[in-house]
């Protein structure tokens, strides 16, 4: 599930690969609202951070898909 929507994928593939197949290919938003998405795919750029099963700031390019996994893209700045 990505942002509560079921997404077809293969067990073991990187979560970042799944995000890149979506219409909106971003993984997170910066505090200014700009979209950032997977770039290096080797864990170096940190542009692919997601919330995975409630755990914050996981690099999706290093995160293999598991059955029942819940991915949430960072929404950017929180409302106060
Ligand atoms: S794509 Fe660069 S750290 Fe994940």
Q: What can you see in these coordinates?
A:
The structure is a single chain. The chain is mainly beta and 80 residues long. The chain has one domain: Ubiquitin-like (UB roll), CATH 3.10.20. The chain has one helix at residues 15-21, and strands spanning 28-29, 35-36, 49-52, 55-59, 71-73. A three-stranded antiparallel β-sheet has the order 4-3-5, with no helix packed on it. Strands 1-2 form a two-stranded antiparallel ribbon. Strand 1 (28-29) and strand 2 form a beta hairpin. The N and C termini lie far apart (27 Å). The model has no long low-confidence stretch (mean pLDDT 92). The structure holds FE2/S2 (inorganic) cluster (FES). FE2/S2 (inorganic) cluster binds at residues 16, 38-41, 43-48, 59, 61. Residues 16, 38-41, 43-48, 59, 61 line the site of FE2/S2 (inorganic) cluster (FES).
């Amino acid at each position: 599930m990505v942002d509560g929507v079921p997404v077809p994928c293969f067990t073991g593939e990187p979560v970042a690969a799944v995000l890149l197949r979506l219409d909106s290919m971003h993984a997170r938003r910066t505090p200014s609202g700009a979209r950032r998405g997977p770039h290096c795919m080797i864990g170096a750029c940190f542009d692919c951070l997601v919330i995975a099963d409630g755990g914050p700031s996981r690099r999706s390019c290093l995160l293999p898909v598991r059955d029942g996994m819940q991915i949430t893209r960072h929404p950017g700045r929180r409302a106060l």
